[in-house]
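Worked example

This section walks through a single chain of length 54. The input is the sequence exactly as stored; nothing has been trimmed or padded.
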Amino acid sequence: MAAWLNAAHEGLGYPLRRNEFVAEVNAAIASGDRQTMLDLAAELDSLNNLGCPL
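Given that input, the structure is written out below as tokens.
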């Protein structure tokens, strides 16, 4: 949820935009591969911990 909110806020400088976020999540789920989903979860967690400029 945090990654979605970060991607939706234009002023945060989050590396993913909403459309990119949705595409990556959909692709991971569609793969049906557990490791792909876990890798994406780890990537999103890392992006969420970059810091906040506000």
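What to look for: Residues 2-48 form one domain.
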